[in-house]
Design brief:
Keywords: Membrane, Signal, Transmembrane, Transmembrane helix
Largest sheet: 3 strands, mixed
Number of strands: 5
Order of helices and strands: HEHHHHEEHHHHEHHHHHEH
Helix content: 55-70%
Structural class: mainly alpha
Number of helices: 15
Signal peptide: 1-17
Distance between the termini: 17 Å
Radius of gyration: 25 Å
Oligomer: single chain
Transmembrane segments: 41-61, 81-102, 171-189, 195-214, 300-323, 335-357, 364-387
């Protein structure tokens, strides 16, 4: 379905790519001839940016398999909406999630296990006492103990369950590549670029990293593969819990922070904070941190997350000297861009202090909540300014190089 939608939009983009205005040629020197220029409308600016933004925050996300209890279409929409909001507010968190799974997986089967692809069934139903999907070490343990048969699921069968393929992913990447290319062209010929396009560029850069890490991960798989528990009537003590242990309690220390808990838990789960039990009941948490990483990979993931946040904020700083409708909007943009660029480094520098003091989860949250709130506020301001500044654009913002409009795009 996604492939069909992308193809339809691409065809519409090809029909709209042809210019409708007269072009002009100009020469800037005796030996250099400037390209032909044409005009673009405010709608074309918004549509190309929003569609690229949609590709970055929706189609690039490869969610884990949902719980069998949540089969309703409305719940699936709400789950995707939450991830889109998270991608808009903290896109570097999505990239870090993808990189964490990439470090833990080396092929399609590994991704399928990490996203909750194998679920234990007892008497034909998901086992609700153990209440979790099976981790890679669980599967190996149960196979060695002859409690389950070896799951037979080929890579082709896994890909058949996936809603994405190389063609659909390639179309999205081509759209993002076109968007980046036309912005580079505008910079070369010193044409005004809008704040909306700069903000979309920041998402596009991180989008390439997300797709690279999740290229082999199946997309939008809705049902896990059942793994059936063998009957052990002669040994009643040999239950699944006996081999793979119990699930941690669902209540945890972070619940005491009320409305901040949904914001803090994804971050703490992703980094595998020891004070947060990562429940794997009938589905894998979105930002699952239960799989232990090598120490080197932990350091690489932490450094990569901070660098990605810096790059993301640095791209917004490119609009430092852009034209703004009012002085107040310019100041707000600059302050917010600096905030999202520097805040991750403040958090990184605070971490050694907490480690040296052997701080509890409560102290961790108390120190990091101001950083998180500042970051979220700055991101919200930038998202609003990306659209409000479109009301008064300079004349050069409506000009574009002719050949870029002839390239098929969304």
């Amino acid at each position: 379905m996604r492939l069909l939608v992308l193809l339809c939009i691409l065809l519409v983009g090809m029909t709209q790519a042809a210019p409708t205005t007269d072009t002009t040629n100009a020469t800037t020197s005796d030996n250099f001839k400037a390209p032909s220029f044409t005009t673009r409308t405010l709608w074309s600016i918004i549509s190309s940016s929003v569609l690229t933004l949609f590709a970055c925050v929706y189609t690039a996300i490869h969610p884990n398999i949902p719980s069998p209890k949540h089969s309703a279409h409305l719940h699936d929409i709400w789950r995707q909406l939450r991830m889109v909001i998270m991608a808009l507010i903290a896109p570097e968190l999505i990239v870090a999630w993808a990189m964490r799974q990439w470090f833990s997986a080396d092929k399609t089967h590994s991704f399928f296990v990490l996203m909750g692809g194998f679920m234990l069934y007892v008497n034909g139903k998901p086992h609700r006492t153990a209440s979790r999907t099976l981790q890679p070490d669980h599967i190996l343990t149960l196979i060695r103990q002859r409690c389950i048969d070896v799951p037979i699921l080929t890579a082709d069968q896994i890909h058949d369950r996936s809603k994405g393929n190389a063609i659909s992913k390639g179309l999205v990447i081509l759209q993002v590549a076109w968007f980046v290319m036309q912005l580079i062209t505008r910079a070369i010929y010193r044409l005004e670029t809008t704040q909306l396009e700069v903000g979309t560029l920041a998402f596009a850069v991180l989008n390439f990293l997300t797709y690279a890490a999740w290229w082999d991960k199946p997309l939008n798989v809705q049902c896990p593969h059942p793994v059936y528990w063998k009957s052990t009537k002669s040994k009643p003590i040999m239950t699944p819990e006996y081999h793979i242990g119990y699930v941690c309690a669902s209540t945890n220390d972070i619940a005491q922070f009320g409305i901040l808990a949904p914001v803090l838990r994804p971050i703490l789960e992703l980094i595998g904070f020891p004070g947060i039990p990562t429940s794997r009941k009938l589905q894998v948490p979105t930002f699952d941190g239960s799989i232990e990483l090598e120490q080197l990979h932990k350091h690489v993931l932490l450094l990569a997350g901070v660098l990605m946040a810096t790059i993301f904020g640095g791209i917004h700083c490119m609009a430092w000297f852009f034209a703004f409708p009012t002085y107040q909007e310019r100041v707000l943009w600059r302050m917010s861009a600096v905030a999202i660029t520097c805040t991750p480094w403040l958090g990184l520098l605070t971490a050694p202090l907490l480690a040296a003091l052997d701080a509890s989860l409560t102290w961790f949250i108390l120190l990091y909540v101001p950083y998180i709130m500042l970051y979220i506020t700055a991101r919200g301001v930038l998202l609003v300014l990306m659209f409000t500044t479109l009301r008064d654009l300079p004349h050069d913002a409506y000009q574009t190089v002719l050949w870029t409009s002839l390239v098929p795009h969304l």
